[in-house]
Amino acid sequence: MNWYIKVLKQYADFKGRARRTEYWMFVLFNIIFNIVTSVLDNVLGLASIDGNGPINLIYTLAILIPSLAVAVRRMHDVGKSGWFILIPIYNLVLAATNGDAGENKYGPDPKNPNSEIDEIGK
């Protein structure tokens, strides 16, 4: 849950890098919350024939920008431009790939942000 909240705190931050854990935990909680809002819409009788309702729609719209931001930061972690999220299968491969060790052109390694300091001290 902390990873989900971290993404929400970085609401529209498209700079930097996001670890695999951060990205996939956000995806997991996003799926869970989508299911909950859909069930809530159905229980309250707000869902239309296609199963969508206003609660789910509001949640989906509210989470759209953070979803894009964390996906772009995930691409940055593997050393790719954020535009790679537009390539259907390849973006999933990149999202599952381990990030670049050490600093890349998008920022320090989120797994070990002090790695540059350690290398300088040696």
Task: For this entry, give a set of tags.
mainly alpha; single chain; 122 residues; disordered C terminus
What does this structure look like?
- The chain has helices spanning 2-9, 20-43, 54-77, 88-96, 115-121.
- With 122 residues, it is mainly alpha-helical.
- The protein has one domain (2-121).
- The radius of gyration is 17 Å and the shape is elongated.
- Mean pLDDT is 88; it is low at 117-122.
- Proportion in β-strands: under 5%
What is the CA-atom radius of gyration, in angstroms? Answer: 17 Å
Distance between the termini: 37 Å
Low-pLDDT parts are 117-122
Number of strands: 0
* Overall structural domain count: 1
* Category from helices, strands and their pairing: mainly alpha
Biggest sheet statistics:
none
Q: What is the H/E string?
A: HHHHH
Helix proportion of residues, in percent? 55-70%
Averaged pLDDT: 88
Query: What overall form do the CA principal axes indicate?
Result: elongated
The number of helical runs is 5
Question: What order do the helices and strands come in, and which of them pair?
Answer:
Elements: H1 2-9, H2 20-43, H3 54-77, H4 88-96, H5 115-121
Helix pairs in contact: 1-2, 2-3
